[in-house]
């Protein structure tokens, strides 16, 4: 919760909604029960690409599987927006961050992705 608060405090979340466990499974193929905690904010409409995923791992060894799930999601989103969602494709390409640090994984697609990364690192 402290990590979520730190990261969300630097992001504009008005165009996103908090996901339930079913949506995390659908978008990322991850089972939230396998992790200490999972929080996902995703776009209100499928015409937007902004997203925030925070995962607290039970074991640092889970980091690679989560990173792969994030990379798959990012590529799916890029494929969806390429060619017509120019600004959203730019967000996905130039304003996305995936970082595994210790028992935490951060994935953010947002204009303020750098600020979110700094908040994440500061909260570790």
Structural write-up:
- The protein has 124 residues and is of the alpha+beta class.
- The chain has helices spanning 2-8, 21-28, 63-81, 86-94, 113-123; strands at residues 16-18, 37-43, 51-56, 96-101, 104-109.
- Strands 1-2-3-5-4 form a five-stranded antiparallel beta sheet, sandwiched between helices.
- Strand 2 and strand 3 form a beta hairpin.
- Helix 1 (2-8) packs antiparallel against helix 5 and helix 3 (63-81) runs antiparallel to helix 4 (86-94).
- The two termini are 12 Å apart.
- 29% of the residues are buried.
- The model has no long low-confidence stretch (mean pLDDT 96).
Salient structural properties:
124 residues, 5-stranded antiparallel sheet, alpha+beta, 44% helix, 5 helices, globular, single chain
The tally of helices reads 5
How far apart the termini lie comes to 12 Å
- Classify the beta-strand content into a percent band: 15-25%
Low-confidence stretches: none
**Percentage of helical residues?**
40-55%
Instruction: Work out the radius of gyration.
Output: 13 Å
Quick one: biggest sheet? 5 strands, antiparallel
Choose one word for the global shape: globular
- Helix/sheet category: alpha+beta
């Amino acid at each position: 919760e402290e990590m979520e608060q730190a990261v969300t405090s630097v992001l504009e979340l008005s165009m996103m909604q908090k996901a339930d466990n079913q949506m995390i499974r659908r978008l990322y193929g991850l089972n939230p029960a396998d992790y200490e905690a999972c929080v996902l904010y995703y776009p209100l409409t499928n015409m937007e690409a902004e997203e925030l995923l925070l995962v607290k791992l039970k074991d640092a060894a889970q980091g690679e599987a989560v990173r792969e799930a994030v990379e798959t999601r990012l590529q799916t989103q890029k494929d969806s927006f390429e060619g017509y969602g120019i600004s959203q494709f730019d967000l996905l390409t130039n304003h996305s961050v995936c970082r595994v640090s210790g028992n935490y994984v951060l994935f953010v697609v947002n204009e303020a992705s750098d600020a979110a990364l700094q908040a994440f690192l500061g909260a570790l």
